[in-house]
Amino acid sequence: MRKLPKINTVVIKIGSSIIAGKDKIDKDFLSKLASVISEIRADIKNIVIVSSGAVAAGFKLLGFKSKPKDIADKQACAAVGQAKLIQYYEDAFKKYNLIVGQVLLVKDDFSNRKRYLNARTTIKRLLDMGVIPIINENDTVAVHELKYVETFGDNDNLSALVGGLLGADMLLILSDVDGLFDKNPLKYPDATLIKEVKFLNEDILNVAGESVSGVGTGGMKTKLVAARKALDSGCYVGIINGKDPYNVKRFLIGDEIGTFFSHVEDVKDKRKFWIAYAATPKGEIIIDNGAVRAISEMNGSLLPSGILDVSGKFGVGDVVKVVDIYGIEIARGKTRYSSSDVKKIKGVKSDKIDQILGFKIGDEVIHKDDLVLSKRKGV
C-alpha cells in the first residue's frame, strides 16, 4: 500500500479522451464515477471536478465529422456541448443524492487578483454547502481560444491552477494510460510504469510524449507541466488510468496504481503561487547581470539601478516577467511602478527616484516579497 497524506480536498481532472467517446459523452463512465464519488465522500470532504468535454461533446451534435478548427465553430460546439455535459453530470450524480454545480472560468478570472479571490470564495462556499463543483474553461467567450496566450491552454493547466486556488491536498489527473512511463507505452511494449516521482525535473519531463487520442489537447507532457505547478502550490499529484473510474478510489485509498508525485513545496505565501502561475504577465523588465545575481543568489529585491530596459505596457501592481540580457526569464514579480515610470528611472540609484518622478513609492521596483524565481524551465 502507498502512504498518502491526509486528503481533505481533492481536485479530479477528467480529459476529453476519458469522458467523450468517438461520438458522444460516455454516460456509463459518468454513472460509475458518480458511484465512486459517493463512496469516497465519507473520507474526503471536498471533491472538485475539472472536466473537459464541451467541444468534444458538441461537435457531433452540430453535424461536424471532427473537431472544427475555426474559432467561432469551436465556440459554438462548446456552447452546445457544455449544456449536454453538465446535464449528464447532473443526471448521473443525482442518483446518489449528490448535487453538482457548474463553474465556467476564463484566464482573466485567475489573472485579476480580485476575481481570483472571488472565485476561491465562491467555490469554497459551494463545497461548504456539499456541492461538487464541475469546473471547465468557458470556451464560448474565451476569445483567444485554446491555442492562444489568454486561455489556460488545456484543462491540465486549469486543474493545477484550481488546486492552487483552493489549497487542495491532491490533484488526481485521469489519463488514457496507466501513468507516467519511462518511454511511450503505446510504441514500446517494454515500457515500465514509474510508480513514484520524488523530484519532477527536466529529465522526467523529457520522457513524456504527446496526446494520441485525437480528442483532447493535453498529452503527458502537459500533465507533467501542470503537476509541477500543483506541487509548487503544496498540492500532491497523481496520474492514473481514468478509463475505469474505480481507479480513483483505488488510488485515494493507497493502492499502488498510477504515478504518485510525492514531493511538494512548503508554501508559506499563497500570493506567490498567484504571481508565478495564475497572473498573466503584462510586460517584461530586462535586467543586468548584477541584478540577476542579486535576485537569484542573494534573495534581493529588484532596484532601478539594475534595470536596462522595459518591454510592454503595465501599471502599478501588475505582474511582469523579469528577464536577463538574453531574454531568459529569471523571475516574475508584482511591480510598484508603471512601465512609463520604470523607463524613466532605469539604471539610476534608488535615492534619485523622487527627484526624477516627483514621487517615490519605495526603493524597489519589485520588492523581494513580491518576487518569485523562475527556477525551472517551462514556468
TrEMBL record:
Pfam families: AA_kinase, PUA
Record has Manganese as a keyword: no
Gene Ontology MF annotations: ATP binding; glutamate 5-kinase activity; RNA binding
Subcellular location field: Cytoplasm
GO CC terms in record: cytosol
Catalysis performed (reactions): L-glutamate + ATP = L-glutamyl 5-phosphate + ADP
Residues binding substrate: S52, D139, N155
Chief localisation class: cytoplasm
UniProt-annotated binding residues for ATP: K13, S175, D176, T217, G218, G219, M220, K221, T222, K223
Listed pathway(s): Amino-acid biosynthesis; L-proline biosynthesis; L-glutamate 5-semialdehyde from L-glutamate: step 1/2
UniProt domain PUA: residue ranges: 283-366
Keywords tagged on the record: Amino-acid biosynthesis, ATP-binding, Cytoplasm, Kinase, Nucleotide-binding, Proline biosynthesis, Transferase
InterPro entries referenced in this protein's UniProt entry, alphabetically: AceGlu_kinase-like_sf, Asp/Glu/Uridylate_kinase, G5K_ProB, Glu/AcGlu_kinase, Glu_5kinase, Glu_5kinase/COase_Synthase, Glutamate_5-kinase_CS, PUA
This protein's record includes keyword Transferase: yes
Function, as annotated: Catalyzes the transfer of a phosphate group to glutamate to form L-glutamate 5-phosphate.
Family label: Belongs to the glutamate 5-kinase family.
Protein name: Glutamate 5-kinase
Source organism per UniProt: Calditerrivibrio nitroreducens (strain DSM 19672 / NBRC 101217 / Yu37-1)
Gene: proB
